[in-house]
Amino acid sequence: MKTIIILLCCVTSVTEIFSQHQDFKISGYLQAQYQYGEKDASLKVGGGNSDKNHDFNRIGVRRGRLKFEYEKKIASGVFQIDLTEKGVGLKDAYLLVKMPALGKSSIKTGVFNRPFGFEISHSSSRRLSPERSTVVTTLFPEERDLGAMLTLQADQSPWSMFKLELAAIAGNGIKMDIDNRKDYIGHLSLNKKLTDKSVLNAGISYYNGGVYQGTSNVYKYGILNNYSGNIGKFAKREYYGVDAQFKISTVLGATYIYSEYILGTQTGDKNSSKSPNYSALPTNDTYIRNFRGGYITVEQDLGLLPLSVVAKYDFYDPNNKIYKDEVGLDGSAKGDIAYQTFGCGLNWKINENMNATAYYEWITNERSTNLTAYNQDIDDNVFTLRLQYKF
């Protein structure tokens, strides 16, 4: 922790030195966080609960982002890392080339945010809820992937309100590419100013990819297909998404509403439906499920006060073909349990660079008499207290 603080102080000094050099930019943010969780909770800082009979708490650095950007003429290079007490990790590493002849269009290649929906690209430094929704973190672990993306958007034209993003990616998160199959993403979005005090954004997304099958056992919608030829093939991974964001300013302050809904086919294993983010090809049985999930977030500034309140509801059903006591039968298991989360909190903007957030999450799971650990709602609610500094 001491090393991280010293490094961030040095970076702040370097930032001031380079502030006169417009081609080179350094930015970042630090989120110091305290969390209190019920005995079965999964916290984002510190280690897991060592005593499952009692609640527990942890303190740590949730995110320590450091971003370097150099821009010259039509090209720019971006490199971003994450420094916490758990180690140093890569977040972004990409080259962006603008295409002035096509308005605001560009080509990007490297490691970058997947162009799907809204919440993936919505920075954690601006989001008032501490974490992204369950469906997004399950389908898109680490938010980023390795590949290339084409962005098409006009400039100085009525068509400039539309933006089309098309990407070909490895489909393995920020880990290296380890198979011959590539995934494809498309996102068409609209940005429309309705009045002087209101703005609407909306989009539709599509994802088409595959997941490597490591054994001959493939469970598709609960039915086992045992065939030696399954090994080495790719199971379906296909998502459809819609998203919308609305902002309006009134005498009560600015109101923000964000929402997203995603459904499709997801491939995982028996106990999890999380997308690939591994260093070696899987050797587990394959489970193909139909899923659905989404969220809605409402943020409200409190007039002229430096305070905002936030409320968020999100849900994720990894297998919408079975419900409640059906889970645990016919090969289904922990990976088929649905979750709902309701969270609310208060954000205090201390100054231009610093803010504090207090947030509580009520998490409920689907119950089944056929799964011992899930015959009731497990104790996994979480309280988060965060202090953020952005530079």
Describe the structure.
The protein has 391 residues and is mainly β. The chain is built from 2 helices and 18 strands. It has helices at 2-18, 134-139, and strands spanning 24-37, 56-72, 75-84, 87-98, 106-113, 144-152, 162-169, 183-195, 198-212, 217-220, 223-226, 234-250, 253-268, 286-301, 307-317, 339-349, 354-365, 382-390. The chain starts with a helix and ends with a strand.
Quick description:
This protein is mainly β and 391 residues long. It contains two helices and 18 strands. The longest helix has 17 residues, at 2-18.
- Give the H and E element order: HEEEEEHEEEEEEEEEEEEE
Strand content: over 45%
Residue share in helices? under 10%
Distance between the termini: 19 Å
Largest sheet: 16 strands, antiparallel, barrel
Helices and strands: which structural class? mainly beta
Low-confidence stretches: none
- Categorize the overall geometry: globular
Gyration radius (Cα, Å) is 22 Å
Mean pLDDT: 94
- As laid out across the biggest beta sheet, the strand order is 1-2-3-4-5-6-7-8-9-12-13-14-15-16-17-18
Compute the number of helices.
2
Q: Strand tally, please? A: 18
